[in-house]
Inverse folding.
């Protein structure tokens, strides 16, 4: 907190020094207009105009980035939905394979039971 106060005080001191150092009157001509004003005002207005221009350009870029981000989020959502559908389909296939394997195992067990002769039949054959 203390460093913020010191930073603000230092900034105010720099602004005051800048103002006093550039207090001379200058003649400014722009297009067909001529005016006499303090150099500080010319510099500050130039800085404010530059900052305004940069804010407009930055806003346009930020708007474009938001639009791109929105499109990418929509793509991510679509891919996540496809992934969930694929997981569901995989689970269904896995379930079907498990059921098929169980039926095959039961069928093989029945075939094995049917192919083994009864003990009573083996005694008769001997």
């Amino acid at each position: 907190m203390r460093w913020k106060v010191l930073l603000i005080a230092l900034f105010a001191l720099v602004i005051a020094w800048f103002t006093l150092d550039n207090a001379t009157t200058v003649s400014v001509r722009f297009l067909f207009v001529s005016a006499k004003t303090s150099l500080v005002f010319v510099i500050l207005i130039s800085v404010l105009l530059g900052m305004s221009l940069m804010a407009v350009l930055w806003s346009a870029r930020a708007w474009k980035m938001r639009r791109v981000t929105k499109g990418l989020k929509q793509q991510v959502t679509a891919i996540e939905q496809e992934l969930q559908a694929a997981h569901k389909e995989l689970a269904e296939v896995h379930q079907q394979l498990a059921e098929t394997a169980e039926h095959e195992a039961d069928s093989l067990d029945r075939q094995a039971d049917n192919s083994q002769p009864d003990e009573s039949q083996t005694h008769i054959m001997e």
Remarks:
- The chain has one domain: 21-113.
